[in-house]
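REQUEST ID: PR-0412
SUBMITTED BY: lab tech R.K.
PRIORITY: routine
TASK: structure prediction, single protein chain
INPUT:
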Amino acid sequence: MTERYCVMGFARPRSRWFAEVGQWSMSGAIPVEFIKCVSTAEMAARIEAAAGISAVLVDGLGHGVDRDLLAMSRDHSVAAIVVDDTSSRDWRQLGAAAVLGSGFGPEELVTALRDTATPLRSLGEVRRLRPDVAAAEFAAPLVTVVGVRGAGTSTIAAATAQGLARRADGRGSVLLADFALDAMQSTYHDAHDVVPAVQELVEAHRGGDVDRAGLRRCTFEVERRGYSLLIGLRRPRDWTALPTRSVDAVLASLRGAFRWVVADCTPEFDGDSETGSVDLEERNHLARRCARSASAVLAVGAPGVRGVRQLVRLLDDLGDLGVAPERVVPVINFAPRSPRARAEITQAIAQLASVAPPTAALHVPLRRSVELIHRGVHPFPAGLTSAVVASVLHVVQTNNARTEMDEPSAVPHMVAVAR
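STATUS: complete
OUTPUT:
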C-alpha cells in the first residue's frame, strides 16, 4: 500500500512552488492531500482542531512563519517543512524538520516527507518531532521578584540586582529585567529612551536566536549600581506582542548571557487550567514562567492587616503554580523596627499560608531616603542590598536543584557563555 500524506501549505501570493505542489497533488504525481491555507492563523487553527495532518509546508518569507508556528506544529506531531532560498534564518534551530529551496521537485518533497512526517496509515504511532537540543553550557540563576501593588517590589528587585553586581561572581554581568505588565523600572532609572525594550528583544527571537552582543545592545548599563537593565513594556496592553515561545527563548538567552538575572514580575499567575482562558494564560506567561523557572522567588509584601493578607494570598498563588516553598522568601518591606511586631507578622504568615515557606521572612525597615535614591539613580545603601542578597544566596545554595528552564527539552536555543 502506498503511503499518503496530508499536508497543509501557506505561501506568499503568486509563489510558483505553491501552485506546483497543488498541481502535483491533483494529478497524483505525489502521494499528498494538499490543503491550502490563506494565513498562518488559519493554519494554526487547523493544527489545533484537526488530527491526521502529516506536515505543513510554509514559505520562509511569509508573514507569521516564526518560532511559535514551528513549535506549535512540533507539539502536535506535525512536521514543519520550510521553503526558503535566502538562508537568512537557521530554520532547523527554530524547529523546522526540513528546509527546501523554492525550486524543489516532486521527488525532493516526497523524500522530505518520508524522512520527517507521519503517513496517514500510521498516524496512531504519534512521534514527537523535536530538533536535537544541546545542553546549555551555562544557565544563570534566576531571581524572580513579585509583590503586591505598593509594596516596593521594584525597589527590592533593583536592590537585589545591585547587591549581586557587587559580588565577585556578578560584577559586570547582572541583568535586571522588567517583566511586569505595569513596568516601572524605566521611570525609576530615569531612562530617557524607551527603545529597545522587551518587545524588541522578543521580536528578534521570533525569527532566530540573538547572540550575546545583540542581547547587550538591548539593555542599558546602570553604571552607579553595576548592573544592566532591560526596559519593560511601554503599555500594559503590549503583552499581546509577546508570543509565548519567543518569550521562553528570550529568557533562555538572557540566562546564558549573564551570570545573574533578576526579574521584576507582576504577581498574576492565573492560566487556562484555572480560568479556562487561553488569553489570560498568555497575558500572565512571563510571570508564570519566571516563577516556575526561578532559583529563588522573593515574595514582597507590606506590614499591617491588609499587607499580610495580600502576602499570604501571593504565597498561596505561588504554591498553586507549583513553586516549591523552599525556593520562596517572604519579604516584609517597610517593616516595623520592633522585634515583637516582626515576630507577630512572621507568626501570622506561618498560620495563614497554606504551605508556609521554611525560609524565615526578611524584614526590610522603612527608609525615607528611597525616593531621593530613585530620583538620582543613586546606589542603594549596603544595609539594604546585603540583607536581600544573603537571603537569595541562602535559598540558591540550599536548594541546588534543577529548575524548569534548566531541562534540555525546555526551548531550543543557542546559549552564549557568560564572562
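NOTES: The domain at 5-122 is CATH 3.40.50.2300 (Rossmann fold).
REVIEWED BY: pending
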